[in-house]
Amino acid sequence: MPAATNRRTTVRRAALPLLPLTLALLALLDLRQELQLLADHFTFTALWFAVISHPLAVIVLLVTPDLWRRYR
Hints:
It is a single chain. This protein is an all-alpha fold. The protein has one domain (18-70). The chain has helices at residues 18-30, 32-40, 44-53, 55-70. The mean pLDDT is 88.
């Protein structure tokens, strides 16, 4: 009976982390109209409305740098 070997499987990672990139792009697509509105006429009320009406997209954009570091 052969001795049990402890083989570690190596996970090949992409050169570009796809999960954080995909999440960031989807968040920007979700905020596209709000960002266009803010670019045309910036008000703090419009900024607050964008944050309140799209909380998941804002959180994804805020944690994207950390996700980028984790998936490298």
